[in-house]
Design brief:
It is built from four helices and five strands. By secondary structure, the chain is α/β, with parallel strands linked by helices. It has a five-stranded parallel β-sheet with strand order 2-1-3-4-5, with helices on both faces. It is globular, with a radius of gyration of 13 Å. About 35% of the residues are buried.
């Protein structure tokens, strides 16, 4: 994990990002992208684990989640729950299988198809941080 003392312009600390991905290798890659961009990354293997983490970590500011996950709660449903319970949290969704109907995504959520470019994810993280 990156040092939490890293600061953004203006002296604010970099936000904490929760990465939600059921595939361990893809989750590791996503965490690397988040950390290489200078953010602290937390990990969840499914949406229920993500909700459990969100309930105990009020410092999370962005969730970066896959859409297709096991366990009965997909990424779109997770995003809707986040927008309902934690409205200020930024949401980045991704999928290699389907392009969601953008009308069903919560307000201000962004979507990237897999394979995504790390630079695009990093830019979305920065955009949600300011």
């Amino acid at each position: 994990m990156k040092d939490q003392s890293v600061t953004m312009p203006g002296g604010k600390e970099w936000p904490v990002v929760l990465v939600v991905e059921d595939e361990p290798i893809l989750r590791m890659c996503a965490v690397d992208i988040v950390e290489d961009a200078g953010f602290e990354a937390l990990e969840a293997a499914d949406a229920q684990q993500a909700i459990d983490i969100l309930e105990h970590r009020p410092d999370i500011r962005i969730v970066f989640s896959d859409i297709d996950m096991p366990g009965g709660i997909d990424g779109v449903t997770l995003a809707a729950a986040i927008r309902d319970r934690w409205p200020p949290i930024g949401i980045i969704l991704t999928s290699g299988y389907l392009m969601p109907d953008m009308r069903i995504l919560p307000g201000q959520a962004v979507f990237f198809s897999k394979p995504y470019m790390p630079e695009k994810i990093a830019q979305a993280l920065y955009d949600m941080s300011f």
